[in-house]
Amino acid sequence: QERSTETKLVLRLNDKFTLNLERSSVLADKLLFVTTSDEVSHLEEVDTSAIQKTLYHDTHYQSSVRVQQRDNAVKVEGIINDKLRIKPVPEGERSTEGQILHKIYEVNDINEGAPIMEESRSSYRSAKGDLSTIQGTNGTSSRRLEERRNGDVFEVELHIISDRKHQTNFDRNEDLIGYMAVFMNAANLRYLDMRSPKVRFLLVGITRRKERPFAPNNQGTTDTGETL
Question: Is the distance from CB of 80 to CB of 13 less than 8 angstroms?
């Protein structure tokens, strides 16, 4: 069940979880999308406005989801909390009311990075400096540039590479962009309590590598020479 305004959405998943969602902003207005193979690379600039309208977050649960509404049915996919995920069941299965059925499932908890994250957060809090020299590229809006000049927000622009194995489940470029956006949106939620400066991640580009893997494996280790 869902109730919505233009930028906010109340989504009841089950008896335990009701998400109070707010619209998220994690994509550059114009995202650079590169499709590459051994022979050729194709570059295009993607208008992300339609995808942006489907991205939401809940600060209480630290949920990051993509909500798509089509033909009076709601499709939800993404992160509920640190343990639970949600995705639609295969197409064709509907509830008695005609709604798309969803699966909520648990993922393994990975804690190896936690100590490093805490150390980094402490370092950022104590750091001071002039951010006015940072330059904006890849469709960064004038509002974001003004925030940078004021030193309020430290914006980290990211270009992510998806190799052949990673992109197996994404037939369309839009689906891959949406997945990456949900992932980066979840990362942003981990930095909400930081101040002076605030930290925000912005996805400005994706490279979709169609042929050889980006990081070849050689006897259990990454072949750095081949990767470069």
Answer: yes
Please state the domain extents for the chain.
Answer: 2-214+222-227
- The tens digit of pLDDT for each residue in 69-108 reads 877 788 999 999 999 999 998 766 666 666 788 899 999 8
Which residue, chain included where needed, has tokens 């990767």?
227
Q: What is the DSSP string of 79-124?
A: ESSSSEEEEEPSTT-B-TTSPBPEEEEE-----TTHHHHHHHHHHH
**d(Cα 110, Cα 155) in Å, to the nearest integer?**
26
Residue 6 backbone dihedrals phi, psi, to 5 degrees: -70, -40
Q: How far apart are CA 42 and CA 208, in angstroms?
A: 10
Q: Are 201 and 184 in contact (CB under 8 A)?
A: yes
Tell me what pLDDT residue 76 has. Answer: 93
Chain centroid, CA 210 distance in Å: 21
